[in-house]
Amino acid sequence: MDSIIVRGNGPLKGQIPIAGAKNACLTLMPATLLSEEPLTLTNAPRLSDIKTMTELLSSLGAEVSSLQDGKVQAMSSHNIDNHIADYDIVRKMRASNLVLGPMLARLGHAVVSLPGGCAIGARPMDLHIHGLEALGAEIELKDGYLHAKAVKGLKGATIDLAFASVGATENIMMAATLAKGTTVINNAAREPEIVDLATCLRAMGAQIEGDGSSSIEIQGVDRLHGATHPVVTDRIELGTYMLAPAICGGEVECLGGKISLLGAFCEKLDAAGIHVEETEKGLKVARRNGRIQAVDVTTEPFPGFPTDLQAQMMALLCTAEGTSVLEEKIFENRFMHAPELTRMGADIEVHGGTATVHGVKRLKGAPVMATDLRASVSLILAAMAAEGETIVNRVYHLDRGYERVEEKLGNIGAHIERVKS
Ligand code: EPZ
């Protein structure tokens, strides 16, 4: 398992290109199952999760070719000869459950393994099931697999989501594109990845309105055609790299970044003392003079503060002036980075879904362990301003969501190297 060695250093300078969004690509790729015609995604990120989704779609009979060094995913689902999404692939990546809605809509049946829990939580699928059953699907859990069928096809319905679930909104929206009649999803997720999926589905001939708001209306159509769609910029990679100059000082321009992708994250950066400026190429980020100020953070569905940036924000607040309180409201176990940051000298108390961070002057390098995707990058950010050397182990977590992280951070002056083992 590779490790990454980071040595604390001074201010950063330069530009970081922000890739296409992992969490958009992982829902756009299953959309190929909705049409017999080819779907091509450009600006795709080069990540292990994309490889896993490629493996899953290929196991169903789709043809997926990664072109131009992986930045283009050319897909054709003309021949889908398997309707079973196997546990061995699904357990590696929860987003595999996003083939359920498209397969039901296209084939009328699907067998998809439940993903099982992951490090940050149980990750149930009750909202996906409730929504698809409202469209007329019959879904039964047997031997850890969801057996879903819609022999008479899917029918439009009004669905009230108990929670603005991103995945459930995506599965229901994709299924509804080929259902007979009108579907309305209330309390729908509003993330930019939902808007990106709706944009791609409209390019394929779907009739969707209201994406980005909490009520989405879909008029079912008989079939969808092929399309070419650019994957939206990754707002979580963007927010992650904006925190690099915030933590280390200096000034960095995040190419392709837009404030509209970030919701409450930018307000919190401003309150902490970080200056963010939109340029022609992206977002320029610099620490205003003086120490970072403590801020309180509560994670919420978009446009609230993103849960996927909570760990990275905690890395910033470890050396802020004052005490910050972070509330994790989306997942039940998403503070695993806290004990690792404590090994570096951070002063953090975790009680259930609340972490209280008492700012210290500076962290000290130490051997630490990555536990999940976002926790791993939070440790790297903290290490970049710590005294001495930090070794981050189990960085396979990192490669799921960040392409070439040591190259991108190295190019702006970080002392970071990957050690193959
Ligand atoms: C998506 O996961 C993202 N993953 C997650 O990013 C992100 O953290 C999450 O949305 C919230 O923004 C992808 O897009 C591939 P949810 P998803 O359904 O769809 C509960 C990362 O680091 N829930 O909005 O699984 C669930 O347990 C990953 O890139 C139910 O109770 O998130 C959780 O507590 C991590 N029943 C909350 O809702 C359901 O049927 C949010 O889940 C579905 C979800």
UniProtKB/TrEMBL annotation:
This is UDP-N-acetylglucosamine 1-carboxyvinyltransferase. It is an enzyme of class 2 (transferase). Belongs to the EPSP synthase family. MurA subfamily. The gene is murA. GO terms for cellular component: cytoplasm. GO terms for molecular function: UDP-N-acetylglucosamine 1-carboxyvinyltransferase activity. Keywords: Cell cycle, Cell division, Cell shape, Cell wall biogenesis/degradation, Cytoplasm, Peptidoglycan synthesis, Pyruvate, Transferase. It comes from Shimia litoralis. Pathway: Cell wall biogenesis; peptidoglycan biosynthesis.
